[in-house]
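Need residues for this backbone.
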């Protein structure tokens, strides 16, 4: 399978997942499409507000030079005798 075929497969899988999520949102709202859209529009800013401090915390960790284990190079050797 070449890169183009993988990309098309990935796009098809993504489309299928999105369609399933749309169907689920509409079903959750009793089949009412405007209500599903309204719920999505209301939920997005709330979820973005929850993500913002997490994103800032992650960015701060990387800015301090944290490595993959979450330890800073400045703190190597602490706690070991």
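Answer:
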């Amino acid at each position: 399978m070449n890169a183009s075929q993988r990309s098309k497969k990935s796009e098809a899988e993504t489309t299928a997942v999105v369609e399933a999520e749309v169907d689920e949102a509409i079903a959750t709202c009793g089949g009412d499409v405007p209500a599903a859209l309204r719920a999505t529009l209301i939920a997005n800013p709330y979820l973005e507000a929850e993500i913002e401090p997490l994103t800032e915390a992650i960015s701060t960790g990387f800015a301090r030079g944290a490595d993959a284990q979450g330890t800073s190079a400045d703190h190597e050797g602490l706690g070991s005798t």
